[in-house]
Amino acid sequence: MLTARPASGTYVPYFLNYISRVPEGAEPLDLLRQQPAELRALIGNLSEEQALTSYAPGKWTIKQMLLHMIDTERIFAYRALRIARGDQQPLPGFDENAYAEESGADGRTLADLFEEYDAVRQASLTLFRSFSPDMLDRSGTASNNPLTVRALLFVLPGHEAHHMHILRERYLPLLG
């Protein structure tokens, strides 16, 4: 059964950038299952030195971007869990640049980062599969904005698709 797209107003407008990357008629859980192979095909065979590439001064390295994707998925899954369980406490935002700076990603191996990525992805898949249709439509507040579990289900694969696009367009051309 196809998961209905989130309605406008059930997420901050900024998230439309991610939600729109989930093709019409696509099942977001299927995309979450497919993306690990796509990401590995894209950057899994880079050398450790290549994975330290940044496309411009002050921009993240490939390793930092990968860990940003992991951190963001963890945070969004946590938000989904809290909202699905009926928690109405406003959830704080996070500073992605401060997280990347403090992550230590560049000192880790790609293999280690992918091991963490796989664990987080499996946990996200298990969590989102557990949600009933009613839970998907529960709403909470994150970063001072309304947000539903359904919106988060679409944001997760859309966020990753966004970053894979950036990898293809800005990083990989520098590596030949």
UniProtKB/TrEMBL annotation:
Residues 32-166 form the DinB-like domain. Pfam families: DinB_2 (PF12867). Coiled coil: none annotated. SUPFAM superfamilies: DinB/YfiT-like putative metalloenzymes (SSF109854). This is DinB family protein.
